[in-house]
Design brief:
This protein is α+β, with helices and mostly antiparallel strands and 175 residues long. α3 runs parallel beside α6.
Amino acid sequence: MEQITITQQPRLSVTKISAPTFQEEEVKGFSARNEQSQMLNNVLKVTDPVLTQPGLGVTKTTITTITQTGGDWSSGLFDVCGDTTTCVVGVLVPCFLDLGLAHQYGEGLCVPLLPGSTFAIRVGIRERYKIRGNLCDDWTTVYCCYPLALCQMTREMKRRMRTQTYHVCTTLECS
């Protein structure tokens, strides 16, 4: 079971207030701009925006991924009727199926070009989902029945990814 925790602090926005422009008027030696700018300064001192607000708390979101593990492979090596499209692609152009499998597994697209990569991905799938087996079985399957092994691994990844369950829990921790 894998858990991811995301913490988020509420954001505050500050609006910038621009001072109004005044026309200068001279009345008997006294400038209206001076009196108005003094009043404006006094008003701005009183109404300066508060930059820090008391926080409501921290929102904490936890995402739990539940994956079915254990047991045997969900389909047999010769279960070609389980997913006919996958099997046709695996038999005719197995390199495309190998690229798709590496992508589903979370690896880069160059991985299938490396020697032994399909064997490594098969071992990784078996370990990730806790499927019974051993290295000797994996090696024999990949190197003696390459297209069928690719089809079986692709079917397994599709079925395991479909049955994943996500549990999302959001809590507010007061500060």
